[in-house]
Design brief:
Radius of gyration: 18 Å
Number of strands: 14
Strand order of the largest sheet: 3-4-5-8-9-12-13-14
Pfam families: Aldo_ket_red
Domain NADP-dependent oxidoreductase: 46-298
Number of domains: 1
Order of helices and strands: EEEHHEHEEEHEHEHEEEHEHHEHHH
Number of helices: 12
Shape: globular
Mean pLDDT: 97
CATH class: Alpha Beta
CATH superfamily: NADP-dependent oxidoreductase domain
Strand content: 15-25%
InterPro entries: AKR2_Oxidoreductase (IPR053135), NAD(P)_OxRdtase_dom_sf (IPR036812), NADP_OxRdtase_dom (IPR023210)
Distance between the termini: 35 Å
Structural class: alpha/beta
Largest sheet: 8 strands, parallel, barrel
């Protein structure tokens, strides 16, 4: 059933589509290379993205998430919106600024993206996003806000974001790393001209990395939209990962019976403070699997068993840092 992105936000679907794996030929999801096969040209990637977007829209997905660093994700989304004749307001579109894509369509590139939370980067990337997405752009987020970048204390950046907010754009931030909760609580305090600046947060949450949960509940209580990403832990909670450490999770999925990615997605959907759970599907088949989570029975007993599978944040993020671009 459609609901809103926060207390006063636009209408969204419970499951959204994130385009990190659709907009560029390299990503850190396990098996991404296998999913793409030899179809890595810009034209082939755009065709694939349109197919997944078509399947998502047909299934009722109405939130789509991109970023300037996701290769050509914004371009692919824009061409799909135009080709299908979807008007502004027909779907909710979010994008992000703060990372620049630097791989040049080369999976073997030494660096795939470079972080820059400066005012000049915001202005440049916002202009680029607006040029591609036009009036469809509803939500603009700081990409992976951290204490180290200083973005939450940069009055020039915050002032520019406030200006965009006054023009009608919703302003949010995404999070990453073991300090997600602390950064979010700092963001909840940020005000410009006496008003809260942010109204949405996108965070990594999954059955292995639950540490942001209490802070996300606080954001929800404050009227923010809450978007969950990496709910399948970049493939670790999917069918390809056969590591012994995750055998109990796979066994629990078999008990349901369902696939591990379905169970992982259902766990995220079940959190009471969640507005949207992003599918990071790179294929129509993966998307169909994630959609099945919308109908998976999920109760307190299942939640209690999954809670015992969480890793410590340092361990989780250390493991994530070893995942290869492919």
């Amino acid at each position: 059933m459609p609901h809103t992105l926060g207390a006063s936000g636009p209408t969204v679907s419970a499951l959204g589509l994130g385009m990190a794996a659709l907009g560029r030929p390299g990503y850190i999801t396990l098996g991404h290379a296998e999913d793409l096969g030899s179809g890595r040209s810009v034209q082939a990637m755009e065709h694939r993205a349109h197919a997944v977007l078509d399947a998502a829209y047909a299934a009722g997905v109405r939130y789509f998430d991109a970023a300037r660093s996701y290769g050509r994700a914004e371009d692919f989304l824009a061409s799909w919106l135009a080709a299908r004749g979807i008007p502004p307001g027909g779907v909710t579109v979010g994008s992000k600024w703060g990372y620049t894509y630097t791989a040049g369509w080369n999976v073997e590139a030494e660096r795939h993206e470079v972080k820059d939370h400066s005012l000049s980067a915001l202005r440049r990337q916002y202009a680029e996003s607006r040029a591609r997405l036009g009036a469809h752009l509803t939500l603009y987020q700081i990409h992976s806000a951290t204490f180290e970048s200083g973005v939450l204390d940069d009055t020039s950046v915050l002032g520019e974001l406030a200006r965009l907010r006054e023009e009608g754009l919703r302003v949010g931030l995404s999070l990453s790393g073991p300090q997600q909760a602390a950064v979010l609580r700092r963001a909840l305090e940020v005000r410009v001209d006496g008003r809260p600046l942010f109204s949405c947060v996108q965070a990594t949450w999954n059955v292995l990395e639950r540490s942001a949960g209490p802070a996300l509940a606080e954001a929800h209580a404050a009227g923010w939209g809450v978007i969950l990403k990496e709910v399948i832990a970049n493939g670790r909670l999917g069918p390809r990962d056969q590591s012994p450490a995750l055998h109990p999770f796979r066994a629990l999925a078999q008990e349901q019976p369902t696939g591990p990615d379905v169970l992982a997605t259902a766990a995220a959907l079940a959190q009471p403070w969640t507005s949207v759970v992003l599918s990071g599907a790179a294929t129509v088949e993966h998307l169909g699997s994630h959609l099945r989570a919308l109908n998976l029975p999920y109760g307190a007993a299942l939640e209690a068993r999954l809670r015992g599978m969480a890793e410590s944040p340092p361990d989780y993020w250390a493991q994530r840092s070893t995942l290869p671009w492919n």
